[in-house]
């Protein structure tokens, strides 16, 4: 292995062992115990693929120029991110906040995935994000593999919606080899271009690969009968559970689509609507807010606390504002009945009375060590948001890395690096209104004017690639 004379981040070499070395338990080879399931790794590859799974080994061996060879338990790490596409040096961040430059000793990373064990060459890895084990979810079994609705766009512009008839679809991936997936394991298949034979496969557990179909045709039953579609004629396939609006990505807590009601398509968090109308939206129908009386509310319940009950937070929505001057609340949590004067996480248009087209997110949270509430803000430049057209807005916060990112139409608007905290997502949840609970300032009882569509809340930070996929899917 090459010797890397990299810089040490966050402290001097003289005090490295006392101030910056991982906890003693991290330096042992014992790793996690049988009673503690291994953490979940999300591995981004340099070709854009994403693999989600658990490490075959409890520990990872690295070399630091400052303190030599280390064997670290995955449970003590937040992230390993390579500095450049041709560099074998990586920035390692530990759960206690330490950060230093390392090289991985092994040539491959062994993962246990939904498709079995795989060995990923380290030279192909762009980053490794470490998160606690996923909470158990209802299993998707192949017994109901055909009970899934396919929305298929053909290359000639035609659309078909129907029930998938194949028990499994065969693909080949340069990363994972041959794959057999039931529709229950697929979220989407999208071809890279009109003439390309390579498609982007996204699975329900968050994996994403460049693949080619091995299955020559897709069978679907529509209201006009059964059809067999050559894969050469297909442009994209979106998969959703039959009888429901969607087959949801990992961590989705709530989705309000505005299909002429306030129903939560992904759970049981149905909204109470106040003077809300509906209009054609970016995807199907959308909520229409009048700007002076329209609002939506979900009352405080213990199970709706995504900031505390997950690995991070993502808020995403399509917005078509009528007015982008001044302050217009998109959504926020209001726990003032429990915490005096404290407003929770917020996503707004505007941050000052004279703001023009500013997108603002305030990630209010409680620091783990001090218990003090702090507000971390992401503020766009003026003119970012425009009136009269649909735009996809997203804010994410990742507890593992401490990163907060604000997006518009799938592109990064601004980002910031913070510490680890629990976003404040308790209390009443309001959409389109700063409620009257907080009189005395210029934001008092203000409203959003325009259309809101596909409002989604996740208890983890979606990756930049996932956000682009959401944006592109909404455009089709």
Topology of helices and strands:
Elements: H1 16-19, E1 40-45, E2 50-55, E3 59-64, E4 68-73, E5 77-82, E6 90-94, E7 99-104, E8 108-113, E9 116-121, E10 125-131, E11 148-154, E12 159-164, E13 169-173, E14 177-181, E15 186-191, E16 199-203, E17 208-213, E18 217-222, E19 225-230, E20 234-241, E21 252-256, E22 272-274, E23 277-280, E24 285-290, E25 295-298, E26 312-321, E27 328-334, E28 346-349, E29 359-367, E30 373-379, E31 391-398, E32 403-408, E33 411-417, E34 421-423, E35 428-431, E36 449-458, H2 464-475
Antiparallel strand pairs: 1-2, 1-10, 2-8, 3-4, 3-7, 5-6, 5-10, 6-7, 8-9, 11-12, 11-20, 12-18, 13-14, 13-17, 15-16, 15-20, 16-17, 18-19, 21-36, 22-25, 23-24, 24-36, 25-35, 26-31, 26-36, 27-28, 27-35, 28-29, 29-30, 29-34, 31-32, 32-33
Written overview of the protein:
By secondary structure, the protein is mainly beta. It folds into three domains: 13-131, no CATH class; 142-241, no CATH class; 252-475, Sandwich (Jelly Rolls). Helix content is 3%, strand content 46%. It has a ten-stranded antiparallel sheet, with no helix packed on it. The radius of gyration is 23 Å and the shape is globular. The termini are far apart.
């Amino acid at each position: 292995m090459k010797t890397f004379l990299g810089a040490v981040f966050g402290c001097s070499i003289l005090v490295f062992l006392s101030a910056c070395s991982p906890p003693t338990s991290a330096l042992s080879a014992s790793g996690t115990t049988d009673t503690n399931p291994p953490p979940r790794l999300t591995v981004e590859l340099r070709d854009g693929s994403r693999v989600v799974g658990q490490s075959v080994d409890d520990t990872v061996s690295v070399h630091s120029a400052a303190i030599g060879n280390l064997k670290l338990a995955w449970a003590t790490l937040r992230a390993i991110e390579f500095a450049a596409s041709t560099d074998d040096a990586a920035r390692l961040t530990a759960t206690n906040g330490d950060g230093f430059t390392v090289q991985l000793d092994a040539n491959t990373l062994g993962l246990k995935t939904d498709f079995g064990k795989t060995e990923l060459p380290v030279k192909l890895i762009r980053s490794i994000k470490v998160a606690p084990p996923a909470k158990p979810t209802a299993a998707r079994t192949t017994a109901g593999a055909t009970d899934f609705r396919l929305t298929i766009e053909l290359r000639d512009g035609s659309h078909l919606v129907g029930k998938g008839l194949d028990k499994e679809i065969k693909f080949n991936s340069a990363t994972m080899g041959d794959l057999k997936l039931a529709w229950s394991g697929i979220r989407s298949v999208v071809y890279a271009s009109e003439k390309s034979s390579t498609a982007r496969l996204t699975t329900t557990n968050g994996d994403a690969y460049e693949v080619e179909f091995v299955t020559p045709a897709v069978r679907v039953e529509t209201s006009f009968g059964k059809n067999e579609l050559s894969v050469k004629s297909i442009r994209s396939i979106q998969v959703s559970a039959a009888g429901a609006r969607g087959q949801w990505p990992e961590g989705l807590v709530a989705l309000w689509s505005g299909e002429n009601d306030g129903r939560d398509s992904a759970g049981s968090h149905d909204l109470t609507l106040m003077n809300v109308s509906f209009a054609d939206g970016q995807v199907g129908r959308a909520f229409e807010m009048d700007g002076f009386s329209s609002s939506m509310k979900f009352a405080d319940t213990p199970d709706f606390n995504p900031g505390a009950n997950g690995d991070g937070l993502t808020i995403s929505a399509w917005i078509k504002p009528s007015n982008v001057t001044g302050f217009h609340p998109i959504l926020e949590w209001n726990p003032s009945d429990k915490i005096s004067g404290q407003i929770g996480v917020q996503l707004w248009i505007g941050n000052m009375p004279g703001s023009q087209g500013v997108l603002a997110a305030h990630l209010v949270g409680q620091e783990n060590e001090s218990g003090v509430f702090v507000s971390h803000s992401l503020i766009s430049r003026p003119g970012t948001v425009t009136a009269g057209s649909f735009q996809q807005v997203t804010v994410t916060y990742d507890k593992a890395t401490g990163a907060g990112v604000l997006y518009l139409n799938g592109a990064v608007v601004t980002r910031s690096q913070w510490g680890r905290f629990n976003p404040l997502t308790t209390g009443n949840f309001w959409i389109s209104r700063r409620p009257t609970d907080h009189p005395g300032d210029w934001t008092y009882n203000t409203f959003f004017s325009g259309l809101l569509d596909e409002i989604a809340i996740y208890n983890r930070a979606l990756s930049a690639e996932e956000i682009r996929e959401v944006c592109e899917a909404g455009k089709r």
